[in-house]
Amino acid sequence: MPPSRRSSITYCARKERPFSGPLTQNHETGNYHCAGCGALLFFSGAKFDSGCGWPSFTIPADSKAISEHEDLSFGMRRIEVTCSRCGGHLGHVFPDGPRPTGLRYCINSASLTFTREKEQE
Ligand SMILES: [Zn+2]
Question: How far is CA 89 from CA 58, 74, 100, 118, in A?
């Protein structure tokens, strides 16, 4: 049985205040890069509205772009994701995302910079 939306909010609530990040509601086509080092992390096509208030993605741009670490803080077992290049904290990945991956990469918008695919004049 999949967890409810409400439990997703609880999981995310330790990080940014919900819906405070500028990229959460961003639906433009482009690429999301690490705010620390500029590494390409996610494509906009993998972004989905999880309802949890943070930018959420089903799959990284490259499986080698991010590193996963077990995080046992706050009495929960979670998987922290960090940038493989600079080691910067990105967010967490949860096993309750949509198909096909079934994963939800819940990322702090402060950890991302967005580049539009085609700059509008
Ligand atoms: Zn980085």
Answer: 18, 17, 25, 28
